[in-house]
Amino acid sequence: MDANVLLLHVMKNVLPDRIRAAEELGHLTVITEPGHVQQYGSDVDVHVVESVQNLEAMRAKMLEILRERPIDRIFAPFELGQTAAGHLRSYFGLPGSGYEVANNFSNKYVMKQRLAAGGLPVTDFRLVAGLHQVPEAAAHLGWPLVIKPVIGGGSINVSVIDGPEHFEEFCRTPAAERVRALPVPLVAERFVRMSAEYHFDGIVENGQVLFGVGSRYSSPVLSRDGFLGSCVLPSQDPTHQRMTELHAQAVSSLGLDSGVTHMEFFETPDGLLAGEIACRPAGGSFPECIRLHTGVDIWRACLELALGLSPKLELKAEEGVHAHCHLPVSPGRIVHQTSQDELAVMPSVVRVDMLRRKGEVVPPHLNSASASAVVYLQAESPEEAEAAMRRVVEAYEIEIVPEDS
């Protein structure tokens, strides 16, 4: 396919090498932001805007590009580029998800409205234009509650507020200043007391779910105990089957024709609640764990669908379950770390990817998928895989000191 493809690349996100080098991309043009870390060759036209969330700036930049060459398709695999991609497709008449569908999947308040209207079980929620309106929202929702930007990703600027006193304390923190500086409103949600959190990753073409796999997080994301990970559930697992039903319902409610999805669910005493659903690959190493278990490459399917191609799904037979864990990291200089070789010989471990090494400086403002290493495991059951993850985390040592020490 010899297409002119526009990639919307949000600052510090990075495409997997196999996707960046995919021959289907044809001639690649990139719109990205200051501070971007992905590097491109001399054959790629790179344009910079202050923020891909500024829709007028994106429209003007797109017009500038179109005056030089045509654009056939837009590839926007990162959360904060979704709305802009939909806007540009709608404005310039390009194929793919337009503004309304993109907004349904990226604007958390609109998303919750559509999911609730579609009959999915969701927690109570309310739009909050600024921090000063949080107490009013709490009067309707009750404490504790979660506040988050309506457009965001990676658990950045997401906070759990326990009550009025905690809210007053929060308002005096740097985190509150970052929230006040956001160019978008907030959504407040009633805090869900859950016994487990899950995610479901799917591939949709022509409105039909072609592929879906459910996984259980090692612990709820907002209250995780030092590391992030998940374990794929067997296809016959009842929770997997219930997520399959609710995911298909969500896809229909939000109007998705084609794309990949990442949806979250909460286990409560009353059953599963639908969390959020995104129309892009999961962050971190979740897609790779899914590939190891099923043979399906979520990233490649994302690219193929964005280019109007049918995804090539090469499913393999289930063999036990796969799991992975993101080992902890924090800002500062790494002065000691368990080695890759030591991790690789632990029971159930099938692969270790070291993302940070001794001597490196870890920058501030990490997201929920940030890690010093990722360990992939295989076991006979989710319970055995989760026990193996715990052993890895307990054995792993990392010492990080402030950069100026």
Describe the fold and architecture:
It is a single chain. With 405 residues, the protein is α+β, with helices and mostly antiparallel strands. It has 3 domains: 4-106, Rossmann fold (3-Layer(aba) Sandwich); 124-190, ATP-grasp fold, A domain (Dna Ligase, domain 1, 2-Layer Sandwich), CATH 3.30.1490.20; 196-401, D-amino Acid Aminotransferase, Chain A, domain 1. 30% of the residues lie in helices and 27% in strands. It contains 13 helices and 19 strands. Strands 13-12-9-10-11-14-18-16 form an 8-stranded antiparallel sheet, sandwiched between helices. Strands 3-2-1-4 form a 4-stranded parallel sheet, with helices on one face. Helix 5 crosses helix 9 (238-254). The protein starts with a strand and ends with a strand. The mean pLDDT is 93.
Number of helices: 13
In whole angstroms, how far apart are the ends? 53 Å
The class by helix and strand makeup works out as: alpha+beta
Total beta-strand segments:
19
Share in β-strands: 25-35%
Helix content: 25-40%
Shape: globular
CATH topology of the largest domain: D-amino Acid Aminotransferase, Chain A, domain 1
Mind telling me the CATH class of the largest domain? Alpha Beta
Overall radius of gyration: 21 Å
Domain unit count: 3
Mean pLDDT: 93
CATH superfamily assignment of the largest domain?
ATP-grasp fold, B domain
Strand order in the largest sheet:
13-12-9-10-11-14-18-16
Low-confidence stretches: none
Going by CATH, the architecture of the largest domain would be: 2-Layer Sandwich
Main sheet characteristics: 8 strands, antiparallel
